[in-house]
Amino acid sequence: MTLRTHPPRIRHLRAYTVDAPGGGDYHDQPTGHWIDDQIATPMAVYPEYRASRQSFGLNVLGSLVVEAEADDGTVGFAVTTGGEPAAWIVERHLARFVESVPATDLERLWDQMFRATLFYGRKGLVLNAISGVDLALWDLMGKLRGQPVYELLGGPVRDEQVFYATSARPDLAEGMGFIGGKMPLQHAPVEGEAGLRANIEQMRTMRERVGDDFFLAYDCWMSLDVPYALRLAHGLDGLGVRWVEEALPPDDYWGYAELRRGLPPGMLCTTGEHEAGRLGFRMLLEMGCADIIQPDVGWCGGLTELMKISALADAHGKLVVPHGSSVYSYHFVITRHNSPFAEFLMMAPDADAVVPMFSPLLLDEPVPENGRLTLPDTPGFGVRLNPECALRRPFAH
């Protein structure tokens, strides 16, 4: 009989920020990038904050890099957003639960971090920090076991994954092999009837540029109300729009349920990018708020929580198509039948090229070719930190 050896323990947990644009905070881009400019937002009611999402501070948090080092020297890491505030949470609060604990105790560690932060957390920045720690621990466990994370999750259910593109130019994405394209909505309700007509015409123009089998969608980024969203959706009817995404504030479950009931036949309601935790997604699912939920694995609580969210969705017969998050969602999507495709954010400034989402911070970050991707069998998430991107540890414990 072979005795079970004790797994390595976590010796250090460290949190870093990066004094450079891009990386985990992919909204921190130079002026003129499509991902920040001329997009409808909740702040569009104020004219001075209408032209760019950076004007009201979408890029202020910056990147968060979390490292978990085992006592044998193996290091797992992950990248998300949160910057210095999240780094403080990791170093001054979460580290006490992680250090000296077996590196395989992911479920216990997640539960302790979440319970311990309930009095000031539950969602938002705290869940970003927990997500970063959780993903670093999954990366560490994969490296310790010599397996890619998708094998730890039970293995792939398909040979490759296909992608739709989030982009200001879905017509260009079609030529790159993507199965569909999601555009950012440009005009908010405060811009009146002219803005509504412009939104509809933008989609009509794009439909004329792409084939009938290429689906289109609108990302409304929390900027609408129910009456406007319904008028928009019915104005888009007949244009082959697959879904209207995140039309309302994340906590308006009642509004989402009303919106979903009122959409034209065949048009789906999607949301969840800014939702966190299984209980938030339970509300979305049980109240009939969405046809597809879109958790971001770097914000919703990490991979440990995403698996529970996915199980809830599967029980409700709903799809899970995670928001962005590159390799951290790819390893999940390839293992789940209720995640039939993945999102790829076109990070080229003019949306005219396929470039890695977390560039320049990550090396070996896979990108789809002709809209498809087969993940390598590299242990962990299969990426490395770029040594040319200087990390700064603003706090220690």
From TrEMBL:
Textual note on the cofactor: Binds 1 Mg(2+) ion per subunit.
Record has Metal-binding as a keyword? yes
Keyword presence, Magnesium = yes
Which residues does the entry assign to the active site, renumbered to this chain?
H323
Single GO molecular-function term? L-rhamnonate dehydratase activity
- One family name in Pfam for this protein: MR_MLE_N
Which EC numbers does the record give?
Answer: 4.2.1.90
Annotated site location: Increases basicity of active site His: D296
Q: Any remaining note in the record?
A: Reaction proceeds via a syn dehydration.
Task: Write the protein's name.
Answer: L-rhamnonate dehydratase
